[in-house]
Amino acid sequence: MIYDDVVAPILDDMLTGMNCTIFAYGQTGTGKTYTMSGDEKHINGSFAHDAGIIPRVLYKLFSALELEYEEHSVKCSFIELYNEDLHDLISLNDDPVVNNKKIKIFDSTSKRGGITIQGLEEFYIHSADEGLKILQRGLRKRQVAATKINDFSSRSHTIFTITIYTKKSSSSSSTPSSEIFKVGKINLVDLAGSENISRSGAENKRAREAGMINQSLLTLGRVINSLVDPKSSHIPYRESKLTRLLQDSLGGHTKTCIIATISPVKDDLEETLSTLEYAYQHSNK
Ligand SMILES: Nc1ncnc2c1ncn2[C@@H]1O[C@H](COP(=O)(O)OP(=O)(O)OP(=O)(O)O)[C@@H](O)[C@H]1O
């Protein structure tokens, strides 16, 4: 239902050449990873019954591309942000020292501005199955980290990015034929557990983690606030790596959607409800 109501229209926008972002936001254990990835196995050439948004986007994307475009290419990347450090989840290089040091974010030197991410590996994929394999590889890598650091997944953000390049010929009786090239992008973001924001009394490592999550989720909130406020002249992308990474996909001619996951068995529903209320008020912007 969420795919049909929320994600399908955004995928259509991406196919028209937009930069789009979907966030899963909520407390630990409320279903963010289930919503974004879910069951990531492929069954009989399609996604599983309990597949999340990423596998569904991959299959629907390839069927749309094969049906509607003469030429297309698709690439994807999968990155994790933990304590403001970036980790490539699908790099074939497993040396953690090399992996952790090599990803850097720079201001792009192109006239259009934006950012360049140096050192992040991107893989061309030719089918949804190939995309699913990349997702599985990244989730496995994240799992390995999770067994080393207790409760790791709830304290890191992940971004699965799909970029498409398409070519279509257009011809009508009144105009000469021409070729239309488009580039679209979709970021599928599984955010760190939002309850870390209010984690008080934390010490040492936990305090550092909570501080970083605080910084990135609060900056994300501030960036979205500034983008929807016509009076705001400054967008604070630079205050966290999460917003810096997504800088090109927020604001301007882009589309952003936040899916808030809530669970009635969790204590602190107040914060999630106020987020939902805020999101609702801004939903048309
Ligand atoms: N809608 C759902 N239907 C069935 N099971 C679900 C649903 N949502 C979540 N779950 C199950 O609940 C558990 C926690 O979900 P999940 O790991 O997605 O939470 P999370 O918000 O990503 O947590 P964390 O912040 O710790 O990463 C998992 O075992 C998941 O399979």
UniProtKB/TrEMBL annotation:
Keywords: ATP-binding, Cytoplasm, Cytoskeleton, Microtubule, Motor protein, Nucleotide-binding. It comes from the Eukaryota. InterPro entries: KIF11-like (IPR047149), Kinesin_motor_CS (IPR019821), Kinesin_motor_dom (IPR001752), Kinesin_motor_dom_sf (IPR036961), P-loop_NTPase (IPR027417). One of its GO terms (cellular component) is spindle microtubule. Pfam families: Kinesin (PF00225). ATP binds at residues 26-33. One of its GO terms (biological process) is initial mitotic spindle pole body separation. The keyword Transmembrane helix does not apply. GO terms for molecular function: ATP binding; microtubule binding; plus-end-directed microtubule motor activity. It is found in: Cytoplasm, Cytoskeleton. Residues 1-285 form the Kinesin motor domain. Belongs to the TRAFAC class myosin-kinesin ATPase superfamily. Kinesin family. KIN-5/BimC subfamily. This is Kinesin-like protein.
